[in-house]
Amino acid sequence: MYSQDVTYRDVEAAARRIAPHVHRTPVLSSEQLSRRLGGQIYFKCENFQKAGAFKSRGACNAVFRLDAGIAERGVATHSSGNHGAALARAARRRGIPAYVVMPRGAADVKRQAVAGYGATVIECEPTIQAREAAAAELVARTGATLIHPYDDPDVIAGQGTATLELAEAIAPPALVLAPVGGGGLLSGTAIVARHLWPGAKVLGAEPAGADDAARSIARGIRQHQSDPKTIADGLRGELSDRTFALIRTYVDRIVTVSEPAIVEGMRLVWQYLKIVIEPSAAVPVAALIEHPLLTDAGAALVILSGGNVDLDALRWVSAPVPARTKRRAPARSKPRARR
Fold it and tell me: 0.85 cut: is pTM over it?
């Protein structure tokens, strides 16, 4: 019922629509990191995207597709951070209000980013049900248009533009990996990858502590995410009926990864690529660490989804940062009295 409601043509249209509002992000590789991971790996660096994550693509596409009369009432969403910041930024560029429901306990760096782009932030309990209920109440009260973080054809088409940019940048890969939480990025990625590289395998990677996508594919029916436990806060959502159908249609496999592997993947990217990524972006890297046979077929493309890190919560920080002290101004010598 949903499998054909987002197409490659939709992604092409999204790319034209959002071009003035987003970055064309780079593709990086590292010989040493590729050696560590067992094959030639290319990294699409959405951590360099506007608002620090791929979410700006889908948010801009959805916001700038709205009719003027509808847009002026504003837009609303629920988000753990990245989509909220991206939507707030897109709304500010269009000159309309934005309202973002955020779960209690969301990373401070992401909460600050949402507020910094001018959105009104509403706090809720940290469950999918609470987020959705608060967002529904907000839409009913304000008349704003709900821009769902992933269950929205315009958002999915926008997310697919990251992979579309690779058409002329790299040789056809044998494997494409993207993280999966709600499934918007993986759905858009898979739609484009199937069109550009029909022979490539498309995989989603998710934390073992938030594995509703893997369970859904295994059982053939969408499974709920009741109590996700993972450092990858951007992947604690659950698939929608739409993204589940798209993933079943276009994605070959979902692999799960452990928390230590996510931390190690994050560390390796920081170490070898010299760039900052967040835990959610490290999940596909963790898949290559824990499933080394994935690279046997040839080159792999990894979508690094974002770089909004709570620096105070880094797992490998073992000692407190010393408090910054004020530098004393050098003492001035008293002028000598003239005789």
Answer: yes
